Fold this protein.
Amino acid sequence: MGSRARFASLLSASFLLLLLHSAEPLGLRQKTPVAGGELLGVAGRYLTREERWMNQRLDHFSPTDHRQFKQRYFEFLDYHGAAATGPVFLRICGESSCDGIPNDYLAVLAKKFGAAVVTPEHRYYGKSSPFQSLSTENLGFLSSKQALFDLAVFRQYYQETLNSRHNRSSGFENPWFVFGVSYAGALSAWFRLKFPHLTCGSLASSGVVLAVYNFTDFDKQVGESAGPECKAALQETTRLVDEQLQSDSHSVKALFGAQTLKNDGDFLFLLADAAATTFQYGNPDVVCSPLTNAKKNGKDLVETYAQFVRDYYIKKLETTVSSYDQEYLKETTPDDSSSRLWWFQVCSEVAYFQVAPKNDSVRSAKVNTRYNLDLCKNVYGEGVYPDVFMTNLYYGGTSIAASKIVFTNGSQDPWRHASKQKSSKDMPSYLIKCSNCGHGTDLRGCPQLPFRIKGDSSNCTSPEAVDTVRKQITKHIDLWLSQCHEPTRAW
């Protein structure tokens, strides 16, 4: 999940979640890459973009509500073989429009294991919305719990589809393995937890399995990833912006191209996200080089940072300023629905409130708990509140009691503190260490702009660190597939 709370799939993808205007991923407010431009305009970016559809149940928890909606999905069968008896890799698409199956490192794994790759779109996002109006009442069926049942139903539907295509008995079972990045990575882990009989294992890449009310570790990691010099420049810039907001709010917002943001908190969240995204997706020099140079040469830090925000975050990453505007988030038929949808999941289930720590913060202290709670109330009304205690009680948080899940994280990714970073029995966890290893590095490579075909790791500051973890992932997939490769399964 950019750092703006939509994980995305730069969070479905999740940025750079499918890449998404967020996936990838969970700034929850997570920033995910948007369509167009350098983000998606690369030859070979997708394995397929051919749409397929199935009927999905709206409410999996009501025995009397039989309403359905159309759920979009994609399939890629080039490596599966004529007999189609090999594994099926279920790639979960997260908190954004799912426009195809990306040609990242999962394609390499699929070829190695002779696997089919299928990707269902998350309910409500993209073209898989049950309702035209995204009113708070209509969002009542948007949750991770409903999404997990969607995945289970899709898994059964697609297995039956394969059996029908190849004239096999309904009892035949391909071995399945589930993949996800960011919020989709959490869903991947939770799917293995809740439906262990439906998958041989899961990869939770940057999987944010821990719901966090006050996520101060996010900002702390931004400072750590920035390093002392860049961190000091970011902190001074934040202080100067806070001061200028008091004296001439309109002028400082206009300097950043964000004069439409009437709420100071929305504006300051935009500025915090812009910096966090560079570390999250492996491009630290984009913000640190100009800021540290400006500080050394006595240049205006606010103007320097504003140029970075305008040229990189808004123009190059195609971030829409309106996605930070609470008045825009209140719209029930917006052009970009992913922001309103992901914020609803944040406000009703997982929080991930990226608030400023009490001391040594990089972001403005005005980005606090009150700001987030006021946003939830303002956008969705009374009664929408993230009960993170119940979410973690239901899934287990980082104490998730499952098996055969691989957790991976990038050392510079602020989101890793909401993931499981310590290995436990049957659940290995790997940290990819390098200066540009961020969100979903194991599948995407680094840095993540422009898109890395097949997740090419050659531009990582430590390709060997990425490749070592990829070998471990392959080893676990191979072992777990062999342990559950049964021609039939009765249950």
